[in-house]
Amino acid sequence: MKQYDIKCPCCGTVNKGLYLDETGGWMICEHCHAETMDGEYARQHSVRLPLLTMSQLAHLETMREAG
């Protein structure tokens, strides 16, 4: 399992050897005890979904019905 060294955004302490895969990216700082999620980990492990307008959905529906 991969370990991460993450700098706390609140106090700046580097927390070493964290298993972020087990916690979904969340950590508790060893120094200030703040609970935070690492932003870089979240960006790498998230899925992007398209944002469609109602007109785009209507156009997709007409294309689906036509063909």
Q: Based on Cα principal axes, name the global outline.
A: elongated
- What is the first-to-last residue Cα distance? 47 Å
Radius of gyration: 20 Å
- Characterize the biggest β-sheet: 2 strands, antiparallel
Helix content: 25-40%
Short description:
It is built from three helices and four strands; from the N terminus they run E-E-H-E-E-H-H.
Can you describe this structure?
- With 67 residues, the protein is α+β, with helices and mostly antiparallel strands.
- The protein has helices spanning 20-23, 39-44, 54-66; strands at residues 4-7, 14-18, 26-28, 35-37.
- The strands form two sheets. The chain has a two-stranded antiparallel ribbon with strand order 1-2. It has a two-stranded antiparallel ribbon with strand order 3-4.
- The longest helix has 13 residues, at 54-66.
- The radius of gyration is 20 Å and the shape is elongated.
- The mean pLDDT is 93.
